[in-house]
Amino acid sequence: MSNQTCLIALGGNIPTAEGGPAHTLKEGLKSLARRDIEVKDVSRFYATPCFPKGAGPDYVNAAAVLVSDHTPEILMQVLHEVEAEFGRAREQRWGQRTLDLDLLAVESEIWPDEDTHRAWRDLSLQDQMQNAPDTFILPHPRLQDRAFVLVPLADIAPDWRHPILNRSVREMLACLSEQDIAEVVPL
């Protein structure tokens, strides 16, 4: 597979032995680079409220542009390996974490198909909290709803277009409430 541009979201809200969440995000990016994944660009780091509210300490979030020749499945495995390297335990959906690396998009690919994407994109919040897909879905089905993803992504890929919604990052961000956007504060 030839080199592809990939977008990821990074987050963390609990420290590791080496330092706080911002430090962990930086070290996670270095770990990706050691695994033959080019870190082409990184957004500013942002303080963001925990999601869902009250579920733990606030987060540090960022986004990055990667270049990789891995298939999306292999890239997801590598992201999970890096999370585990920094003590991430996948015990609770949307639980506290040392490092969260979410694959948002691989170029304009749609995985596994538009119907599956639509079904997960249209899930109610209650259903999202209780159900997780058994395969990865690209683009990430919630990215258009989350200021903590879109604000950092706008730093580095404002013109990337969602292949199903046909809206750029900038356009998706403009659809969010001013309050949601204001809660994403540069560190």
TrEMBL record:
7,8-dihydro-6-hydroxymethylpterin-pyrophosphokinase domain: which residues? 8-158
Keywords assigned:
ATP-binding, Folate biosynthesis, Kinase, Nucleotide-binding, Transferase
Q: Give the EC number(s) listed in the UniProt record.
A: 2.7.6.3
Could you tell me which pathway this protein works in? Cofactor biosynthesis; tetrahydrofolate biosynthesis; 2-amino-4-hydroxy-6-hydroxymethyl-7,8-dihydropteridine diphosphate from 7,8-dihydroneopterin triphosphate: step 4/4
Spell out the CDD domains in the cross-references. HPPK
Q: What does this protein do?
A: Catalyzes the transfer of pyrophosphate from adenosine triphosphate (ATP) to 6-hydroxymethyl-7,8-dihydropterin, an enzymatic step in folate biosynthesis pathway.
Q: What is this protein called?
A: 2-amino-4-hydroxy-6-hydroxymethyldihydropteridine pyrophosphokinase
Gene behind this chain?
folK
